[in-house]
Design a protein that fits this description.
Shape of chain A: globular
Number of helices of chain B: 0
Number of strands of chain B: 10
Oligomer: heterodimer
Helix content of chain A: under 10%
Order of helices and strands of chain B: EEEEEEEEEE
Structural class of chain A: mainly beta
Order of helices and strands of chain A: EEEEEEEEE
Distance between the termini of chain B: 40 Å
Shape of chain B: globular
Helix content of chain B: under 10%
Strand content of chain A: 35-45%
Largest sheet of chain B: 6 strands, mixed
Number of strands of chain A: 9
Chain lengths: 107, 119
């Protein structure tokens, strides 16, 4: 079955830049989306279609794509950004798949 | 405001049946797909399946095919996820979420329904 691979954890200091990657063979052909999930809360969409930022999401969140890897970048990380982040894409049949998630720790 | 409101937490015994709900508001319910996502305790998100309320077209992830049933009552703007015989391993948080189509992002999400199955 198709898999999306994310690092289990990323740590950054406040004000620094966090980069979270997501790798998958079908990513050159399928869009990726990113979700933020804080403890006890439902996921929230922060980036869609590789790099589109939904209304209400701070400008410090951005996304990019290169080959089989997509990247979520958080510039000027704030304490409130500490959360789990999940990428999502589709396999060749169009079925959604989630990455394993990355825990972002703000030191 | 587009909202998905899910039914509350449930505590059930193994072998019991259960149906949880997801009610959409603030948009045309029949024009968007509703997907279901499982999150086991301390684990990541797993896509379960999806339904189009307009015609009840339903697709399941291979991992969940035959394990759950997704349905909809478009007259009341509500989608459902049900089990005929729960197992302890079904204990998890279940989320519904809206999407415009395959490969498109889920947005927004319901608040989640916590299901606990224990004897």
């Amino acid at each position: 079955s198709y898999e999306l691979t994310q690092p289990p954890s990323v740590s950054v200091s406040p004000g620094q830049t966090a980069r979270i990657t997501c790798s998958g063979d079908a990513l050159p052909k399928q869009y990726a989306h990113w979700y933020q999930q804080k403890p006890g809360q439902a996921p929230v969409l922060v980036i869609s279609k590789d790099s589109a930022r939904p209304s209400g999401i701070p400008e410090r969140f951005s996304g990019s794509s290169s080959g089989t890897t997509v990247t979520l970048t958080i510039s000027g990380v704030q304490a409130e950004d500490e959360a789990d982040y999940y990428c999502q894409s589709a396999d060749s049949s169009g079925t959604w798949v989630f990455g394993g998630g990355t825990k972002l720790t703000v030191l | 405001e587009v909202q998905l409101v899910q039914s509350g937490a449930e505590v059930k015994k193994p072998g019991e049946s259960l149906k949880i709900s997801c009610k959409g508001s603030g948009y045309s319910f029949t024009d968007y797909w509703i997907g279901w996502v499982r999150q086991m305790p301390g684990k990541g998100l797993e896509y379960m399946g999806i339904i189009y309320p307009g015609d009840s077209n339903t697709r399941y992830s291979p991992s969940f095919q035959g394990q759950v049933t997704i349905s909809v009552d478009k007259s009341i703007g509500t989608a459902y996820l049900q089990w005929s015989s729960l197992k302890a391993s079904d204990s998890a948080m279940y989320y519904c979420a809206r999407t415009t189509g395959f490969g498109v992002a889920f947005d927004p999400w319901g608040q989640g329904s916590l299901i606990t199955v224990a004897s």
